[in-house]
Amino acid sequence: MTGDTEGGRGGDGGVAGDADGADGAEGADEVALDPWGSSAVGDYRELFSEFGIEEFEGILPRVPDPHYLMRRGVIFGHRDYRPVARAMDEGDPFAVLSGFMPTGDPHIGHKLVFDEIIWHQAQGGDAYALIADLEANSARGMSWDEIDEHARNYLLSLLALGFDPEEGTLYRQSENREVQDLAFELGAEANFSEFQSIYGFDGETDVSHMQSVVTQMADILYPQLEEPKPTVIPVGPDQDPHVRLARDLAARTRYFGVRTAYASFEATDDELASLREAYEAREAYAEDADQPRCEEAAEWLASEETAAEGAIEKLENAGMEPLRPRTRFVDRRATDDAFEALIEAVDGEKRVFEAHVDAFEVNLAEAEELAREVEVAHGGHGFLPPSSIYHRFMTGLTGGKMSSSIPASHISLLDDPEEGYEKVKSATTGGRETADLQRELGGRADECPVYELYAYLLAGDDDEFATEVYEECVGGERLCGDCKEQAARLMEEFLEEHQEKRDEVEGLLEEAEIELESSRR
């Protein structure tokens, strides 16, 4: 969730990780996502098909007053952001959390994540920002003195950009006992073979590195410890393996699973699809369409080439049992008291089995809410699956990726404003070989690190200005020299203002409820 990336809870912005963007989970060769490696996403569209990330454009109309990073497509994807958008729109509780691995100075790539946290806080969300110091120590070998220095710089920039420490929560992994206890609990639900598959861990991987993963899982779910609520994790796509694992662990800790069923037996997803198909076609084969029998459905399904073989066998074994849709509460890890309380809480017609309860007058949404209420009332967490949004990585000023380890590729938020000016002036561009060609063919703004500076930062909330720069570039009216001069001046002004604001919020940081010096030094 954090990382040495351009932003996110990963190291330099993201959950916490050490990458400039990657994902070590199972997936495509060209889009390998490794939270601690070096990811370059050549085609963001591949993330939609390979990893199930959804295009943010599809949900944008449902987001109240969207941030300019959303409007301009910098935030390009999401995983289950709908509950957050709905809570935001209806004024219900929701949270945002991201973290930072303090391995270097914060730079303009990290500002993406700072802005995303601050914007969600301004929309009414409970905002959490954490320092992933355990990960920095275990995965990167940073000393505690170095961690403290960098952590302070991240926090000052976050406050200078508008994070409200009185309304939000700041913490360090190493000083948060609740997070550590939750990590221990979640660790019981994960295993080494899973970490091998997701992250490529092997026999040489330090145990502390593995422990840092479950700590990040605890970070992601931490905002829901007091009460379940939609929670969004803003990250770069390299951190998606962490989000997917956290969603899995959130489900594994639940007392009850809720799903649709059609008979008393359990069915896989493929079998369930066949059962649904058989039920919907009941008028074609059932003697009594109002009460189709399982053996009738089995005979009909046997003639369907796409039917799941297991579904036919299970229907045959069920014989004359009615095929009838119902909502099933599956006992995953509930206490005896919680299971009895659930049975009591289900209204209307129901059938009780040893490990599940079938309800015939409760829809899925009602069942999910009821299951969560019973779980929380009996000591469970009732976690909602965490959501995530994904932003594009900023291109380095020298081309290629932006990296903390390549000073000329990025602009630190601590750079002298004049140095920031010079870095922009020296940046590569998407311009043509000559001014005449630029006027004739137009510039390649979509491939230009300088245009990214306008779109991601320098144009601020002014969409008209960002559009003007783009259209003048691709239309051949804007030449690279003048464009870089304007961007360099704007960057110089931004750094001056930001660093003045950092000085102003020193007092806020000292008063904030976060340890600025590690007890492990």
UniProtKB/TrEMBL annotation:
GO MF annotations in UniProt: ATP binding; tryptophan-tRNA ligase activity
Cleaved signal peptide residues: none
Motif ('HIGH' region): 102-110
Record's subcellular location: Cytoplasm
Region listing for Disordered, in residue ranges: 1-34, 500-521
Domain of life: Archaea
Residue span of motif 'KMSKS' region: 401-405
GO biological process: tryptophanyl-tRNA aminoacylation
UniProt catalytic activity: tRNA(Trp) + L-tryptophan + ATP = L-tryptophyl-tRNA(Trp) + AMP + diphosphate + H(+)
EC number(s) reported in the record: 6.1.1.2
Entry GO terms, CC: cytoplasm
Similarity field: Belongs to the class-I aminoacyl-tRNA synthetase family.
NCBIfam families linked to this entry: PRK12285.1-3, PRK12285.1-5
Protein name (Swiss-Prot/TrEMBL): Tryptophan--tRNA ligase
Primary gene name: trpS
